[in-house]
Amino acid sequence: MARKKQVSLQTIADELGLTIHTVSKALRGLPGMSESTRRLVATRARELGYKTKDQEEGMSAERIPWGYTKYRRFAMLIIGDTRFHRLQFEGVSIRMNELGHSVYPLSVPPGLTQGARFKAWLNENELLFSDGLFLTAALPEWMENDLLKQPLPKVLLNYPPDLAEVDSVIWDVEYAVHRSMEELYRYGHREILYVVDIAPMRGFHLRWKAFVTSAQRLGLYDLTNPGLHMISQAVDRNSWLDDLCRKLASGRFTAVISAVPYMSEWIAAAAARLDLSIPSDLSVVGMENEESPFFPYMSRPLLLVREAGERAAELMLRRIANPLLPYEHVRLRGAFQSGSTIRSI
Hints:
By secondary structure, the chain is an alpha/beta fold.
């Protein structure tokens, strides 16, 4: 990997056809350019191994080792093959490669059970001989608990269990719900339907808790009644859509918060069935990991999934280099993308 002494601001500027001044401003986070230009500069600088003095000092201040350190290889446990997990892995992998290490994904086979079968699977994949484990969301609770007890460095890309002694990082879904509620309220919406099963994972429950807290803060006390919303498990899609259509057809709700990725597709299907136009008849805020093909200009809080992976890599190396430091739980807060699926009333 190229070192900073081999790459200058002029190198980056020449490659991208920009001025040194623009490149410098982009890398220092200063205003005066489009976000696409800023990302372009940052991406190329990372590819070339360029670090500003502030970045070097920041790594040192956080006690994160980089450059000319012992090569390490880490494992990342993943349930299923989704874009959501690929984003997390991409973030971890990019950052680890920059810092001179590697990470490999390990998919948990369907139907794996605890006990002897799980131990055999760990041994077969030599998982406990890796330099550290990244544990992603959606792992079964028993598996997560077992892996958290293993005597090697770990970082959890999820909200941690109450008593877990582990470094963790997550895109802050509670903050995202609060931002969504504030945005809808600012546009005049007072009757807001919350849509998602709140039971499966810790993050789902925390989303609902944030919705209730936000409704109370805004004086929308009627919205705190669980029976008003779509928070039960969607065992059968057709019956679930029927229930959603009944709620939307009542005419009470002017807006919907789709609180997990891909749920906006179901809301779009229900709206189409009722001949409701988005946003003319119904405003929608989605919590998508990326831009939705159904709503290219979705109004949504930005969930920093890839960035959480990058931060997880830094936490892992920090833990290895400083094993006695206190554990950290990091929440990454993204901005709200206004989009075009909210109307003012």
